Amino acid sequence: MKSRTFRRHIRESLKSLSRNGWMTFASVSAVTITLILVGIFFVIMMNLNKVASTIEEDVEIRVHIDVASNGTDHQTLKNAIEQLPEVKSVRFSSKQKELDNLIKSTGDEGEAFKMFEQDNPLNDVFIVKTKNPADTIKAAKKIENMDYVSKVRYGQGKVEKLFNFIKVSRNVGMVLIVGLLFTAMFLISNTIKITIVARRKEIEIMKLVGATNAFIRWPFFLEGLWLGILGSFIPITVVATIYYNAYEYVAPRLEGNFIEILHYSPFVYQVSALLILMGSCIGVWGSVMSVRKFLKV
Fold first, then answer.
1. CATH top class, domain 60-153
2. Whole-angstrom Cα distance, residue 287 to residue 285?
C-alpha cells in the first residue's frame, strides 16, 4: 500500500469518528465500561494467582521416619524418595530439630516440652517438596508405601480443598474475563454496524466503481482501532489509581508474612499495555465483522 493511500485511510477514519459523534461516544463508552471491569477482574485474578502460587509453594510432605531405622535405612529411604519423578527436593530434619521447632512455635507454653529433651519421642523427618504442587498428594501416596516410613503428613483433607478452590477460582476468573470481552465485541460490533448501515450506499458505489474490498475496509479497520485505543484510556487511569491505593494499604500489612501481592511497578504498566491491546483488538474485530457483510454487492 502506498503511503499516500494509507494517509487517506487515516484521514477518512478520523473524519468518520467526528461525523458520527454519538456513535463514537457509544462505542468508546462500551469499550471503556468493559475494559474497566476486565481490568479490575484481571488485577484481582492475577493477585489471587500470586497468593495461590505462594501457598502452593509452601505445601510440603513431612515423612516421619520409623524410630527403629538407622542411618543406612535413612539413606535408603531418601534415595527412594528422590527417585520419584514428582519430587523436587528432600531435606532431612532430625528429631532434635523437630523438638526445637515445636518449642519455638508454641512460645511460653513450649517450655513444658523441654522435659523431653533427654528422651525425645519425636521422629526424624524428611521434608519433601514436589516439582508441581498439584503432585503433592500423588507423591505422598507413593511414599506411604515405602520401607522405614512411620507416617506421612501433607495436610490431608485441607490440601485437596485448597487445590480445588484455587482451580475453581482460576477457571471462574477466566470465564468472567472471556465473557466480558465477548460482550464488548458484541456491543461494539452492533454499534459500529449502525454507523456502517448509514454509509451502505457509499460502500455500494465504491464497489461499483471498482474499489477493492481492502480499500473500503481499511478506514473502518482504523476507525475500530481508534475506538479501542480511546476506550482504554479511562480504564487504565481507573485501574492504576485503584491498585495504587490498594497496594499502599495492603502491602505494609503483609510485611513479614509469607503472602504478598504483586508490586505496583511493573505490574500496572503491564496491565495498561494489556488493556490497550485488548481495546485495539476489540475495536478492530468489531469493525471488521460489521463491514464484512456490506462488501457483497
1. alpha beta
2. 5
